[in-house]
Amino acid sequence: MTRHHPDNISLMEYSAGNLTEPHALCIRLHLDQCPHCRSRVDTLDSLGAVMMEHQPRVDVSENMFDSILARLDDDPEPRMVRPALHTDPLRRLLGSDLNDLPWKRQLGDVSALDISEKFPDQPEQVVLQKLAAGGKAPSHTHRGEETTIVLQGAFADQNGVFNQWDFVVLTDQDDHKPVAVGCEDCITLSVLSAPVKLTGTFTRLLNPFIR
Ligand SMILES: [Zn+2]
To answer: How far, in Å, is the centroid of ligand 1 from the Cα of 95?
Structure first.
């Protein structure tokens, strides 16, 4: 069961179709495995449909917006759960199992694969990252925003443990040093708006685990 979810704004943007392709893929992969967030998106989809229907007579005030967000936060259990999506958009995109990809070994425990070319018209860098089981990535901060979803295994940093399908957004305020936990290699998909800045003893730019 995932414990780290996309925030309400991200789900709203997803529901409204406003996200770039790589960001939408991260949300979609999470939704496929998270009934809680699927329920939230269902609610947002219904709301969007009502608003479209009544446009422009419905004036959505900031208060109304806030109360909708509060209601989403208060909803502990999924009510209207849309069924899990049974296609695998990632496998279709990559054409291969995650572990069979042509990983490029970086320093130490870290491997990476830049798949930005799969999203030719999108501004972000899109990278798969692999931290070997039990391995550590060097300490680093982020210059922009990085959206990451865990595809396999788990990693831990000072913010907690991130398991498969957990969702995390890191900004330039975050300085972290991920460690792979469990007995599997940890594989993540990250969408990067700017490169990483190393803060530890490593001075070279290593790979996207540390972007
Ligand atoms: Zn979720």
So the answer is: 26
